[in-house]
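Researcher: We plan to redesign the surface later, but first we want a full-length starting point. Tokens attached.
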């Protein structure tokens, strides 16, 4: 959940930089974060956490559904892969 909140913060901060943040302005808002957290909560109630499914649901549908520019989509996917993966809870990634 921390990774999803951090990702949402990064996405919103990039909007502040206009054309340097994204090629086009997108209407990301708090409902995107709520939907992401709901997806994570639903998918984490299983024996093993399906990170591929989480990545797809959040990256392709929740946030990616609004993104129309290819480079903006690649930027979004890159941030998603950094903060929503199976190793996000280990310290070794950040040393």
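Model: Full-length starting sequence:
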């Amino acid at each position: 959940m921390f990774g999803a909140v951090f990702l949402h913060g990064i996405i919103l901060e990039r909007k502040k930089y206009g054309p340097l943040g994204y090629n086009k302005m997108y209407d990301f808002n708090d409902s995107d974060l709520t939907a992401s957290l709901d997806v994570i909560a639903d998918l984490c109630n299983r024996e093993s956490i399906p990170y591929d499914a989480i990545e797809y649901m959040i990256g392709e549908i929740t946030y990616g559904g609004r993104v129309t520019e290819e480079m903006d989509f690649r930027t979004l996917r890159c941030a998603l892969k950094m903060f929503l993966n199976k190793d996000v809870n280990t310290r070794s990634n950040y040393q």
